[in-house]
Amino acid sequence: MSKLANETAKAELGRATWKLLHTMTLRYPEKPTHDEREALEAYMHLTSRLYPCGECATEFQALLKAFPPQTASRLSASLWLCSVHNEVNARLEKPMFDCSKLDAEYDCGCGDATTSTAATDGRPKSGPSSHDADRMELMDLEWDVAKDDVTGVRMIKGGRMVI
Ligand SMILES: Cc1cc2nc3c(=O)[nH]c(=O)nc-3n(C[C@H](O)[C@H](O)[C@H](O)COP(=O)(O)OP(=O)(O)OC[C@H]3O[C@@H](n4cnc5c(N)ncnc54)[C@H](O)[C@@H]3O)c2cc1C
């Protein structure tokens, strides 16, 4: 006998998944290596393929096609995911999330320990120093470039595409 859909379990899975994905992008290196960038991109694509809720997986795959993962920095990755989550919120008629509040919302409880040697490396030449970067507000986007330098994809900033 086939199982009935269970909206409560689907929503719980969604909340847990979003929590993991957002927390991960907010701990992603400020200046990722090529390997780390590929890992994050692959992680998102594999999640969209293997996500247990079929409807959600199809939706996520379509979103990844329309808005390819932005992996150039912690800022671009976390704002990209926030925007993608807002796309899902819009389709489900849920309220939009203010992406400037990401930092306050997600704490992995890991303290200051870094997950990558790249995270303690210097900033991109065009950006602020690593000391400044640690204290940088999420929505302080002035140093950021308009396009992802690996994929050429236009950045989504604060939930909207840069024209
Ligand atoms: C990839 C993916 C695709 C999904 N597709 C579907 C689908 O097609 N159909 C379906 O019914 N369900 C889908 N879900 C589940 C759905 O998105 C919700 O997780 C679920 O409905 C529970 O919603 P919620 O109101 O508790 O908040 P959620 O959307 O789960 O959000 C959890 C918390 O995250 C915070 N939050 C909200 N928006 C953002 C944002 N933009 N950025 C950062 N934080 C935010 C808020 O504090 C919120 O309470 C999907 C989940 C995932 C991970």
UniProtKB/TrEMBL annotation:
InterPro entries: ALR/ERV, ERV/ALR_sulphydryl_oxid_sf, ERV/ALR_sulphydryl_oxidase
Cellular component terms (Gene Ontology): mitochondrion
Keyword Flavoprotein listed: yes
Chain segments annotated as transmembrane: none
Top EC class of this enzyme: oxidoreductase
Lineage top rank: taxon: Eukaryota
Cofactor: FAD
Protein name: Sulfhydryl oxidase
